[in-house]
Amino acid sequence: MVWLLAIVQTLLFIGAAPLLAGWTKRIKCRLQNRKAPSLFQPYRDLFKLYCKQPIVPQPASWIFRAAPYIVFASTVLAASTVPLVAVDLPTARIADVIVLVGFFALGRTFQVLAGMDIGTAFGGMGSSREMTISSLAEPAMLMAVFTLAMSAHTTNLSQAMNYVLDTGLVLRPSFVFALGGLMLVAIAETGRIPVDNPATHLELTMIHEAMILEYSGRWLALIEWASQIKLMLYGVLIANIFVPWGIAQAPSLPMLGYGIAAIALKLAVLALLLALSEALFAKMRIFRVQEYLGFAYLLSVLGMLSHIILEAAR
Amino acid sequence: MAITELTLYQQAILLLAGLIALTSFLMLGQSRLVRLVLVFALQGLLLAAATALAASVLDYPHLYVSAALSLLLKGIVIPVLLQRLIHRMGLHRVMDTIDHPARVMMAGTALVVFSYYVSLPVVQHSTLVTLNAIAVSLAVVLLGMLLMITRRQAVAHVVGFMSIENGLFFAAVVSTYGMPMVVELGVAFDVLVAAVVFGVFFFQIRSSIDSLNVDQLSKLTEADR
């Protein structure tokens, strides 16, 4: 029964990710005074891509063909470990943040390899940029998570959420810093606007797009879907770690419904913030990304320090 | 006492202390003077909020006066003065870039650790709940000094100087329930006067070296041009 619930939760995760992408796009269009596409446009796009025949570039090896599946599978695995509507599911035992970072790293490795596999200039450029950014973003993310772990005494997501729920409303300076750091990292890792622009194909701005330029058909659909799931994953992480209220602590039907409503509301608000920041800020030069991620790291370190300085028992 | 045992208001003071430290770091990384002054104003507002909260938690009514003073002076008057100076001197488009932002930030983090280490013995021998924040206020003082060292524009130096004063004021609030009223009033008006005097200095510096970049002060020029 609980296993079934875990599987349903993962399916919900995968199914709702394009909806979140559509919602974000809708708000962004509204903010830019454009006519917004339907909320379900990402589903249609994915379906259209899925029906098309994929074309394999001639020099591609097996890595190029395997990468979409590995990227998608690792993202789905990562999604299955993150509590979406209920904590204490059987998957919670591996719901470790370090494992989560590992899954992300696995998917990214194969995407980068696939970018270089076909030997075009764009692929190599995108891959090297992606690696540069991720090598700067990963320590910042881990540091933010460790700040959380210092308060909750665990790196297990489910237990950490339970801890935050049990202690009730405590204004922790360290959580504010960790939240800031994690938000900056999430924007960088999901390739949103100040760092990367997912909507353009300009050679100067491409990072993520440059790597997947040679993909088409259902492979492209898988990669696009995976990146939508990743966006939602970061949103859920931020929403459920720092504001876990509403998540179901016991697997009963009314609580689960309440959990779904709560997470939908939180994600809608987060997407609003994301769209607002994307409409307000310009994309920065790639050489300034290290400054940006350095600031994210600084925030996380400050979170850890403020945990020691301001919150420690004496 | 761990943070979970404190009341919500005491937690809020600590949270504001954290945010004040964050504004110090934001100032350290800001390369535009207009935004630098804006962040400084934000720090003043946070400081006023923290003081007012401390006044209500500790039940010291005279702290409300200091809160109002810092809200008025550091949150509004001095930033407006500085902002007008920047616009009158045409500095609002000048970039005061730092050479090695990452190194400066790491130095700032090191200063926070250092101030924690220094204030640890003081904190351990007291029962005052807000005293945890004394390391933060010391860090704000040191970060203000770092800001003055790393910048070249004279306006940024003044902002650094004012934020040092912010740190001292915060230290007084969290450790001894604020300074005596006479001292507080004196310091507040000193700072206000200093802002005006600095304005005069800016014009002097600019008329003698044609810019507010203090690096130019080390160049030799003819006595009267």
Automatic annotation (TrEMBL), chain A:
<feature type="transmembrane region" description="Helical">
    <location>
        <begin position="292"/>
        <end position="310"/>
    </location>
</feature>
<feature type="transmembrane region" description="Helical">
    <location>
        <begin position="92"/>
        <end position="110"/>
    </location>
</feature>
<dbReference type="GO" id="GO:0050136">
    <property type="term" value="F:NADH dehydrogenase (quinone) (non-electrogenic) activity"/>
</dbReference>
<keyword id="KW-1133">Transmembrane helix</keyword>
<feature type="transmembrane region" description="Helical">
    <location>
        <begin position="256"/>
        <end position="280"/>
    </location>
</feature>
<keyword id="KW-0560">Oxidoreductase</keyword>
<feature type="transmembrane region" description="Helical">
    <location>
        <begin position="131"/>
        <end position="150"/>
    </location>
</feature>
<dbReference type="InterPro" id="IPR052561">
    <property type="entry name" value="ComplexI_Subunit1"/>
</dbReference>
<feature type="transmembrane region" description="Helical">
    <location>
        <begin position="6"/>
        <end position="24"/>
    </location>
</feature>
<feature type="transmembrane region" description="Helical">
    <location>
        <begin position="231"/>
        <end position="250"/>
    </location>
</feature>
<dbReference type="InterPro" id="IPR001694">
    <property type="entry name" value="NADH_UbQ_OxRdtase_su1/FPO"/>
</dbReference>
<keyword id="KW-0472">Membrane</keyword>
<keyword id="KW-0812">Transmembrane</keyword>
<feature type="transmembrane region" description="Helical">
    <location>
        <begin position="170"/>
        <end position="188"/>
    </location>
</feature>
<protein>
    <submittedName>
        <fullName>NADH-quinone oxidoreductase subunit H</fullName>
        <ecNumber>1.6.5.9</ecNumber>
    </submittedName>
</protein>
<feature type="transmembrane region" description="Helical">
    <location>
        <begin position="62"/>
        <end position="86"/>
    </location>
</feature>
<dbReference type="Pfam" id="PF00146">
    <property type="entry name" value="NADHdh"/>
</dbReference>
TrEMBL record, chain B:
<feature type="transmembrane region" description="Helical">
    <location>
        <begin position="103"/>
        <end position="123"/>
    </location>
</feature>
<feature type="transmembrane region" description="Helical">
    <location>
        <begin position="12"/>
        <end position="29"/>
    </location>
</feature>
<feature type="transmembrane region" description="Helical">
    <location>
        <begin position="156"/>
        <end position="179"/>
    </location>
</feature>
<feature type="transmembrane region" description="Helical">
    <location>
        <begin position="63"/>
        <end position="82"/>
    </location>
</feature>
<keyword id="KW-1133">Transmembrane helix</keyword>
<keyword id="KW-1003">Cell membrane</keyword>
<protein>
    <submittedName>
        <fullName>Formate hydrogenlyase</fullName>
    </submittedName>
</protein>
<dbReference type="InterPro" id="IPR038730">
    <property type="entry name" value="HyfE-like"/>
</dbReference>
<feature type="transmembrane region" description="Helical">
    <location>
        <begin position="129"/>
        <end position="149"/>
    </location>
</feature>
<feature type="transmembrane region" description="Helical">
    <location>
        <begin position="185"/>
        <end position="203"/>
    </location>
</feature>
<keyword id="KW-0812">Transmembrane</keyword>
<feature type="transmembrane region" description="Helical">
    <location>
        <begin position="36"/>
        <end position="57"/>
    </location>
</feature>
<keyword id="KW-0472">Membrane</keyword>
